[in-house]
Amino acid sequence: MFGYYFKLGVRSLRRNPALTALMVLTLAVGVAASVSTLTILHMMSSDPIPQKSTRLFVPLIDNGPVEGYTPGEDPDDIQISYKDAVNLLKGGQGVRRTALYGVSAPIQPPRADIQPFNLSGLAPSRDFFAMFDVPFIHGQAWTEQDEARGADVVVLSREIAEKLYGDANPVGQRVMLMGFPFTIVGVIDNWMPLPRFYRLNGGVRYGAGEEFFIPFATSIRHELTHNGSMSCSTNSGPGFAARLASECTWITVWFETASAGERADLQAWLDNYAADQRKLGRLKRNAVNRLYDVPEWLVFTKVVGKDSKLQTWLAFGFLALCLVNTIGLLLAKFSVRASEIGVRRALGASRTDIFRQFLIETGVVGLVGGVLGLVLAFGALALISMQGKQTAAVAHMDWQMLFVTFVMSVGAAILAGLLPTWRACQVTPAIQLKSQ
């Protein structure tokens, strides 16, 4: 019977075409508004590295002054100092560990037809590439020996490598970076986690991949200043060496463990490290040492802001308003079919049969509205993506959201059709037959 009722639902679309079109359009607009905002929220809050997100940890050590501190409050910054970063790297915890900070540098292209330009990138230690599953198309990460001596080596992004060398493999070539000849050791493929969880202090959290990578030790040796935020509770003094010796926070450290169960051991080691530092006169706040895995880190750093969540709730409120209008339209449509319902009841159809038929017809309306809503949602996302690279990175729909769109549309239509369908089932056959 489902197939028969479905055919009746398709045929019913031709009845009262203006009323049907108004229902479909109302439902489509509500679905498009809610789905487009939900899609953006889904992309913004998705797990950027699900295969190991519970095995990657970022530590926070509060090294701020005691003055003005309230015990138990959150740290002032989401980064740590250089001295803590170096100590954590030397501690050897986890299967991998990396320290990193954002950098920018001018590059002198090897081609005369390209003018010098600035690159935005990262200065991590070697384990960064394996920790975050960074794909390579040419070469590989620098060696441990390169890192130990702070060698002038660089890994380029695919976009920059193709801009400078075309389709050729540039590994082994030298390029002038910061006025020094750097040897290219690798080229990464397109890699842009959403959000850019490994470095949330740079201001850009979506739609911006790294253009180059140089070793953390090399960046320090060249006294390359950070590209991002920095917090200093006291004056660090002039010069780069004074910054390294200060309590200024401008570096992020990550650990990778073999399993999520090793978190307790890593936390215990971090607490012991902090206790040793207090004996040296540091970490006077005696604050709790924080350890966050990737999902916790995204929540703590408020990657998805309250504004985004509020917009999603408002969009669903608009969908609810559209459903109310759809209910009124369905009541009007079903009311003119009272005589048809009376004849069917008189011929032996039960109320359950009538309910099932009209509910399936409502589902057909929802299906058509879903298709139109999907088209409108794609259009809305296209308009949103034109606002900038960050919005373009999250304003696209995946297969999961495609499925959600149709389920939401059909479900919303069926929900809106419950009352009109129930009212249709209450038609008294005798009264309708007498009126004919």
TrEMBL record:
This is ABC transporter permease. Residues 315-428 form the ABC3 transporter permease C-terminal domain. The chain crosses the membrane at residues 313-336, 357-384, 399-419. Keywords: Cell membrane, Membrane, Transmembrane, Transmembrane helix. Residues 20-226 form the MacB-like periplasmic core domain. It is found in: Cell membrane. It is a multi-pass membrane protein. It comes from Telluria mixta. It comes from the Bacteria. The keyword Acetylation does not apply. Pfam families: FtsX, MacB_PCD. The keyword Transmembrane applies.
